[in-house]
Amino acid sequence: MKTETKNKNIFMRFLTMNTSNQTSGRSLPLWKQLLLQLLTLAIAFEVLFPILYIITLSFSSKSTRPSTLQLIPTELSLVAYQQVLDKPTANPVTFPVLLKNSFLLSIGVGLVALLVAVTAAYAFSRFHFKMRQVLMVLVFIPLLMPAVGLSTPLYLLMNSVRVTDCGQGITAIAPFMTCAQGAAGKIIFNLRDSLLGVGIAMISGALPFAVWNLKGYLDTIPHELEEAAAIDGANANQIFFQIVLPLAIPQLAVTFFLGFIGHWQEFALPWLFLSKPEDYTLSMTLYNMTGQYANAIPWNRFAAFAVIVAAPVAVIYIALQKYITSGLTAGGVKG
């Protein structure tokens, strides 16, 4: 009986022992640590499972639908990658053109939205003017609406801007000018059916979040730094570009990266606006690889293309990791 009691006490001490080596705060017994580790591993497996499955599928030389779930590649074939890089789909559009279109949209929209947002956020953070609170609420309202819900007015607005060749050397720019009544004009440029129009529409959706995100961070920058620079003779532009912007680089990187993810993977607006294959993006092409039936999809090429589409996001994150980490934590303390 004493032996059983002793063994039970040893078992309980083993489960309640503290192995976290914490010198302050709440210590965790071993059984809680094991439970948290198992929960963490389960969450990690759930997150990594589809990624590992797609990567494994991309190294397959068979384009048929897989019949089993494999997480470890049985072969390392690069045929699928070579095929999608040579000719992604049946459309006569090369991979470099698709890559260029996606980069133009994501990088261009991210930089323009960041430039406009940081100036607007600085104005909201430092200047006190009439209707300031009302304008901040109006900036926030688009975040409450789904992006697809705004696509119809954006479509109509962009579609109203066209350049038409009316003949006889006459060019009309709608909505300011139109061809003569009865004249059959030829549309030279339609803002809606162009990367520029899609970019403008995407900027309108990216600005609200960027303004609010940067405004909260700029509030944490001490006013005394700007006052000291003003005493030393710096003007408003020098204070903004030489004092505020360098201090805001971490949050600028965070805002750009979060926007880049959404812009790079944007599908709804380009699919709704664009009609010419030469303007397609990578996400649109990935959707084009799907067919009506699952057996008709080239699964290995689909997986390889998905990996290629996801790779730039990982590269940008690694490049900006230092600023992203500091930007996510620095704004949490008022200083």
How would you characterize the overall build of this protein?
The protein has about 325 residues and is mostly helical. The chain has helices at about 1-15, 30-60, 80-85, 95-125, 130-140, 150-160, 195-220, 225-230, 235-245, 250-265, 270-275, 280-290, 300-320, 320-330, and strands at about 160-165, 170-175, 185-190. A hairpin with a 2-residue loop joins strand 1 and strand 2 (about 170-175). The chain has a single domain (about 95-330), classed as MetI-like fold (Orthogonal Bundle), CATH 1.10.3720. The protein is flat and about 65 Å long. It starts with a helix and ends in a 5-residue tail after the last helix.
Looking at CATH, the homologous superfamily is MetI-like
Flag low-confidence runs.
Answer: 331-335
> What is the percentage of strand-forming residues?
under 5%
- The number of distinct helices, counting runs of at least 4 residues, comes to 14
Q: Strand pairing plus helix content: what structural class?
A: mainly alpha
Q: Which second-level CATH architecture applies?
A: Orthogonal Bundle
Short description:
This protein is mainly alpha-helical and 335 residues long. The protein contains 14 helices and 3 strands.
Write the layout of secondary structure elements.
Layout: H1 2-16, H2 30-58, H3 79-86, H4 95-126, H5 132-140, H6 151-159, E1 162-167, E2 170-174, E3 186-190, H7 195-218, H8 223-231, H9 236-247, H10 249-264, H11 268-273, H12 282-288, H13 299-319, H14 321-330
Antiparallel strand pairs: 1-2, 1-3
Helix pairs in contact: 2-13, 3-13, 4-7, 4-10, 7-10, 8-9, 10-13, 10-14
